[in-house]
Structures are given as C-alpha cells and as structure tokens.
Write the structure tokens for this entry.
Amino acid sequence: MNARRTPLDALALGIATLLGAGKSPVIPGTAGTLASLPLALLAAAFLPLPAYVVLTVFVSLVGIWAAGRTSAALGIKDPGVVVIDETAGLFVTFLGVPVGWTAAVLGFFCFRAMDILKPPPARQAEALPSGWGIMLDDLMAGVYANLLVRIGLFLVSTVTTLR
C-alpha cells in the first residue's frame, strides 16, 4: 500500500486478506479458502438458513468494499492478497447444504476447481469494475460449487443406500 495509507485502507487490507491469510507466499487463494473453511462450516452448521443468507450477503458486500479499496490502494486490478472473495464464494458453496466431513471436502475441492476454471459467466464477471469484478467471479464459482456439492452428496447417499 502507498505511504499515505489511511486507517480505512488498513481496515480494508485486513478484511480483504482475511487477517493476513492472503499474504501466503504460496497459493494465496487456496490459503484463503482453507482459512475460510472453518468459518463457513461453523456458520452453516449453527445458523438458521435465513441468518446464514444474511451473513453471506454481508460478507459479500463488505468484501466488495474491502477488495475495491485494497485494489485501488495497491494500484493492482485484482491483487493476489485479496482472499475475501474466496470467503464469500465458500459461503455460497455451503448455502443450504447439510454440513459434514463429506460436504466439507467436496465443498473445498469443488470451489477451488470452479474458482480456477471460472466457467461462464464467472470469467466475464472479472471484467466488472473494482471490488465487483474481484468478488462476483468467486460468488459465481460458489454457485457452481454449491450445485456440484449437492450432486456429490446425492451420489454418495445413493451409493451408501445401495450397500
């Protein structure tokens, strides 16, 4: 960040990097996803669905602000240190999904795959300005991952039932 960093810039950086998880020297997106996993799973397990939806929207909106402000302060369109987008995307991944070990593993890998592959319209969402482009591609990846987790859980339960 520049020498004229304000307290709001520092707050945005802390949020955008998920308190530093995004500063991982190796695969910061995966580090951010791993750091977000317990948060998303605990929220999904203990909050009623309406509260989980409100929390997901809140994380997304705060993320748009923090990612946009961090991007502007660093002078980089989509800084690798910003991982709040992974947090929001993972929250979407577990939206309405019964949590457990199988869902956690499926959710992590499905989200990372969708975040890397960015099937349409996720890739196109990156072109949006500022924090919107940083966040919306991961929110779309979360939608795809959510569908894949649901299919995976259905297949696992079907195979288990057939035994």
About this structure: Residues 130-162 form the longest helix (33 residues). The chain has one domain: 7-162. The two ends are 57 Å apart (CA to CA). The chain has a mean pLDDT of 94.
